[in-house]
Design brief:
Blueprint (H helix, E strand, L loop, with lengths): L2 H8 L3 H58 L2 H12 L3 H31 L2 H4 L2 H16 L2 H6 L4 H21 L8 H23 L10 H35 L2 H34 L4 H21 L1 H8 L6 H26 L5 H26 L1 H30 L1
């Protein structure tokens, strides 16, 4: 059989076609998400200046903390449930209603907390309009039904709508932002794009897929919040340890070192994004086809190793492109590359094995344990080793998180044998 015929045979089944389509959709989305900001950022910095842009970024960083609260782990639990019950209209209506009602409750709570922070903190209150406009992103994020499209494995809708947001935002920046005083338009455009995509997404759910909002008892809402809580912690805590290294490096080191660290992290984050694409594509599929896990395990381990080797081989090109001439740059890159394998293992055995097995509490405890270790070690490592300590801390946490999950998976597998 020729190579072309073999490839056609591999992707002839319905499941294979869905996986390929979803992979292409999410890969295109990741690529667009990286390219478009590179087009707009130089213009924005030139027109608005670093100070005004810094205000916008700081406001967005505050909102980002509440995205995890508003989502409340539905990007995993709702995807998992939709993947299993996608042929049951009654179950889908129930899942849809849980997501909308609980997200609405946490959205209201988030907006109230943000308002209190802004109005009772003078440094925040000075730019209250920016925080108000930035909060529109939170509303759009809560409305956008990414969880549903991922669950039914129709990720092209996610790509279309996100592409619409980014293109709208990119074009409007050049049209409406002309001088420094226009900096308030930036968060307004971001928020409008997110809300527009959220409304269109909700329209598709109601009109195309016939979903209906049904009344839920207080008991069901409380039980759903309780069952989602371990995964909420699991999703929220890593945002803390991921930021700790950079944050402390800025306090204990210099802003120059923070810039070098973030520049080197660009290559690492690209590899992480690719791993995330594969994890998200296979998550709903593995919920239906649990027997396919060994093939997925091998695939992602091979991909993570190839990405790691590729980054190290291309280090000179990366440093040239990023204009990095720091003396320990390759050593720092090597340390961070080691963490890619740990991140891949946490996705393989945490997200796509134990969570599919409904071992949410196990994954939560592992995330808490690893994150607390990273939080405690960050200060002494960065205090004495600076930027190298920051790299060691991040990779150590990722290896601890992924390695512990692999050990637990291996123990269960050996016990069954």
């Amino acid at each position: 059989m020729s190579l072309i015929k073999q490839i056609r045979h591999k992707f002839s089944s319905k499941d294979s076609k869905a996986l390929l389509e979803n992979f292409i959709s999410l890969s295109a989305l990741q690529l667009i998400g990286m390219v478009l900001p590179l087009i707009t950022l130089p213009y924005v910095l030139r027109v608005l200046g670093f100070e005004k842009y810094g205000i916008i970024v700081f406001a967005a960083s505050l909102i980002a903390y509440f995205q995890s609260l508003t989502d409340f782990s539905f990007r995993i639990t709702a995807v998992r449930d939709v993947a299993v019950f996608k042929n049951s209209p009654q179950k889908l209506n129930l899942i849809y209603s849980k997501v909308i009602i609980i997200k609405g409750l946490f959205l209201g709570l988030s907006l109230m907390i943000i308002t209190l922070i802004v109005f009772f903190t003078s440094s925040f209150y000075e730019y209250k309009e920016i925080y108000a406009l930035s909060s529109l992103m939170l509303v759009g994020y809560a409305l956008f039904p990414e969880w549903f499209f991922q669950g039914i494995e129709k990720m092209r809708y996610i790509t279309y709508l996100n592409l619409g947001i980014k293109l709208f935002f990119t074009i409007c920046i050049f049209v409406f932002i002309r001088q420094e005083s226009d900096y308030w338009i930036y968060p307004l455009l971001q928020g409008a794009g997110f809300i527009g995509a959220g409304i269109i997404g909700q329209y598709l759910l109601v009109k195309k897929y016939g979903l209906k909002l049904i009344w839920l008892s207080n008991r069901m809402i409380k039980d759903t919040i309780k069952s989602n809580f371990p995964l909420f912690v699991n999703q929220f805590v890593p945002t803390l340890y991921n930021n700790t290294s950079t944050f402390l490096l800025g306090i204990l080191g210099t802003k120059y070192l923070v810039g070098i660290y973030q520049a080197i992290m660009t290559a690492i984050n690209l590899a992480i994004s690719i791993i995330d694409v594969f994890s998200r594509v296979f998550f709903p599929y593995l919920n239906r086809k649990k027997g396919a896990f060994p093939k997925y395990e091998k695939l992602l381990l091979v991909i993570s190793c190839l990405l790691s080797i590729g980054i190290l081989i291309s280090s000179k090109l990366i440093f040239w492109f990023l204009d990095v001439s720091y003396k320990d740059a390759f050593f720092i890159l090597t340390i961070l590359v080691v963490g890619i394998l740990g991140y891949a293992m946490s996705n393989i055995y945490g997200l796509n094995y134990f969570l599919i097995k409904r071992e949410d509490s196990l994954v939560m405890k592992n995330t808490l344990f690893s994150s607390l270790i990273g939080f405690v070690l960050a200060f002494p490592l960065i205090m004495y080793l600076g930027i190298i300590g920051a790299a060691i801390n991040l990779s150590f946490v990722r290896l601890t998180m992924g390695g512990t999950l692999f050990y637990k998976y291996k123990s269960i597998k050996d016990k069954n044998l």
